[in-house]
Amino acid sequence: MSSVGEDHRGRLNLRVDPRLKARLRAAAEANGETVTGFVLAAAAERAEEVLERAERIAIGAEAFVRFAAALDAADESMPTLSRYAKEPSPIPTK
Asked: What's the pTM?
């Protein structure tokens, strides 16, 4: 069965060609699900994969070594930033 929640609050309309619709229906029936449950579960799984990949930064070994070295390097002096950090904020507070 589908792992998609039963709290139906929104609606999503899709246009699909008849051949794909028949395949989705057959796959859902083979899995003991409704077409809606089947499509939502597949879409939710794909969305998680895409978002997980989008939230991850992948770099090569050489770039990682340079990144780690930059993190470990001595702090750079920024007198202007230090001066502004000591000034009162121009944003009013409640």
From this structure: 0.55
